[in-house]
Design brief:
single chain; mainly alpha; binds manganese (III) ion
């Protein structure tokens, strides 16, 4: 099959107490698993599209045949977003940003606290389901954007450096309706090493 569910790079309970093990298991195995399964089903009769990687499919979404576009947008987007999301978190992580991204955050947003507030505010205001991102925009700027459902910034020509999943499935078992609290606690899981890798990638 063209697309596969990536293995979670840590155990389900590795992000405790900020994200509980049951949420991680359901989120990875069942939610992400379903996006991969549905993406493969949608592309079953599209052998040319099966040869593209997931970034290409989402970047070129608007040129795909209409018959599969919505399925790729939702399920391909879900596959890409979650593949990125798992790597942006790690056990014993969080804290202050390190490396080049620390400097870039200060240059563009004043300081880390202000950046976090703006990022969390954008995530809290996303109505319904979606993601909040730090992106390198099409014109090269660092910006905070939020996307609905499983849309990924690549479709608009932006490259995601950091992102948080604000679907209820990401936090409801532990935080119920308290999305702002989840957004705040989530920073304790951020893998700055990977954020720096994506930041470097974004300038290429
Ligand atoms: Mn999710």
């Amino acid at each position: 099959m063209a697309f596969e569910l990536p293995t979670l790079p840590y155990s389900f309970d590795a992000l405790e107490p900020y994200i509980d093990a049951q949420t991680m298991q359901i989120h990875h195995d069942l939610h992400h698993g379903a996006y991969v399964k549905n993406l493969n089903a949608a592309l079953e009769s599209q052998s040319d599209l099966q040869n593209k990687n997931i970034e290409e499919l989402i970047r070129d979404l608007n040129t795909l045949p209409e018959s599969v576009r919505t399925a790729v947008r939702n399920n391909g987007g879900g596959h890409l977003n979650h593949t990125i999301f798992w790597t942006l978190m790690a056990p014993n992580a969080g804290g202050e940003p390190t490396g080049a991204i620390a400097e870039a955050i200060n240059d563009n947003f004043g300081n880390f606290e202000t950046f976090k507030e703006r990022f969390n505010d954008s995530g809290a205001k996303r109505f319904g389901s979606g993601f909040v991102w730090l992106v390198r925009s099409r014109d090269g700027k660092l910006e905070i954007v939020s996307t609905p459902n499983q849309d990924n910034p690549l479709t608009d020509g932006h490259y995601s450096i950091l992102g948080n999943d604000v679907w209820e499935h990401a936090y409801y078992l532990k935080y119920q309706n308290r999305r702002p609290e989840y957004l705040k606690q989530w920073w304790n899981t951020v893998n700055w090493e990977e954020v720096n890798r994506r930041f470097a990638q974004s300038t290429r």
